[in-house]
Design goal:
Blueprint (H helix, E strand, L loop, with lengths): L4 E2 L9 H9 L19 H17 L6 E6 L2 H13 L4 E6 L2 H13 L1 E7 L22 E5 L1 E2 L4 E2 L10 E5 L16 E5 L10 E6 L17 H6 L9 H16 L2 H22 L4 E2 L10 E5 L3 H13 L2 E2 L10 E4 L6 H17 L2
Parallel strand pairs: 1-13, 3-4, 3-5, 5-8, 8-9
Antiparallel strand pairs: 2-10, 6-7, 9-10, 11-12, 12-14
Helix pairs in contact: 1-6, 2-6, 3-4, 7-9
The structure holds pyridoxal-5'-phosphate (PLP).
The site of pyridoxal-5'-phosphate (PLP) has 12 residues, from α3.
Length: 360
């Protein structure tokens, strides 16, 4: 039995060192005689785990002191509601629609107020990022919302929108910790961790302190109020303890591997290997305009459904798994998050090259 090269969009590959360490600590976490799964979230030993995870993330991302880091439950999708509940003071916000996740956030926000479509790339199956240099942002909008890396379509904002002074709120689920980020440019960043950081069930919210208030929409559940979570250091109720512990290990793994600069460098290298091949191949084509290509999610197709299916079947048999594209795009998608080793991408490209020669 060996490990496969896992190109899943999420839940996704984690660093093998992290999994090994977690396995070693499974029955007895550092002399506590318990698994992290079994210990009280109010214990000293667990308190150290969550505090250290937070401190490491703060260091990694250079999160300024006036931003809170919250480890919450409910995934990124829960935040689609929590964001308007906490931030839509005027009940109006602008959304840029760049794919399914942005659309879902947009629909959810409409439950709570006026969500305005500022721009969209739906006309070309979300294969590009719309021009965001002069969006129709009005004074009464509480924030501008983007999905910064579009997991399904494989696009990424390489330049943030001009929000005309309004708060920027970003779903970074599938690019979180893949490169350095200037947190000061955002009012709020959120990321479901199962793409690049840890096991599903944890969502990280980084939010500017002045946005954390009691002035939330009527009916906001206690659990969804950022103030509740911030006042209790993410320990208002039982947090996703084990997931946070694994996230903490991934933060340390990133620090050991050059921090976010290190991640960016290797991620650029990995993506270039795959995109260069796609650009030179006569059989496989990328589906996204070059200037908006994601470093994390790489969708590609051949000209035939039959060939796509054959490729996926043969790739799976050869140990390259979860390459089937999202049902709304078809074809293939290789997600090459932080933990995908560069050999995985090199070997995938060798396999694609061989497949192309055998089938043309
Ligand atoms: C996966 C994903 C989501 C949904 O995450 P859940 O944790 O399943 O709610 C939202 N946004 C983006 C960009 C994603 O990639």
């Amino acid at each position: 039995m060996g490990r496969v090269y896992n190109f899943s969009a999420g839940p996704a590959v984690l660093p093998v060192e992290v999994l090994q360490e977690a396995a070693d600590e499974m029955l007895d976490y550092r002399g506590s005689g318990q698994s992290v799964m079994e210990m009280s979230h109010r214990s000293k030993v667990y308190d150290n785990i969550i505090k250290e995870a937070e401190a490491d993330l703060r260091k990694l991302l250079a999160v300024p002191d006036n931003y809170k880091i919250l480890f919450l439950q409910g995934g990124a999708s829960q935040q689609f509601a929590a964001i308007p509940m906490n931030l839509m003071k005027n009940r109006k916000a602008g959304y840029v629609l760049t794919g399914q996740w942005a659309k879902k956030a947009f629909s959810e926000a409409k439950i709570y107020g006026e969500a305005v479509e500022l721009a969209s790339s739906a006309d070309k199956t979300f294969s590009y990022i719309p021009d965001c240099s002069d969006l129709p942002i009005t004074d009464d909008m509480d924030y501008v919302y983007i999905c910064e890396n579009n997991t399904i379509y494989g696009t990424k904002y390489w330049q943030l929108p001009d929000t005309k002074g309004k708060l920027l709120v970003a779903d970074q689920s599938s690019c979180f910790l893949s490169e350095p980020v200037d947190v000061l440019k955002y009012g709020l960043i959120m990321a479901g961790v199962q793409k690049n950081v840890g096991p599903a069930g944890v969502v990280i919210v980084i939010v500017r302190e002045d946005l954390i208030t009691d002035d939330v929409l009527p009916g906001t559940p206690t659990m969804l109020k950022y103030k509740t979570q911030a006042d209790n250091d993410s320990l208002y109720n039982t947090p996703p303890c084990y997931g946070i512990y694994i996230c903490g290990k991934v933060f340390k793994w990133i620090m050991k591997n050059g921090g976010l600069e290190g991640m960016q460098k290797i991620n650029q290298e990995k993506a270039a290997i795959l995109y260069d091949f796609l650009d030179s191949s006569k059989m496989f084509h990328g589906t996204v305009v070059k200037e908006d290509r994601s470093l994390m999610n790489v969708p590609f197709v051949t000209d035939s459904e039959e060939l796509n299916a054959k490729f996926i079947a043969e790739a799976t048999a050869a140990g390259f798994v979860n390459l089937k594209g999202h049902r709304s795009v078809g074809g293939m998608r290789a997600s090459i998050y932080n933990a995908m080793p560069i050999e995985g991408v090199k070997k995938l490209v060798e396999f694609m090259d061989k497949f192309e020669k055998e089938n043309s």
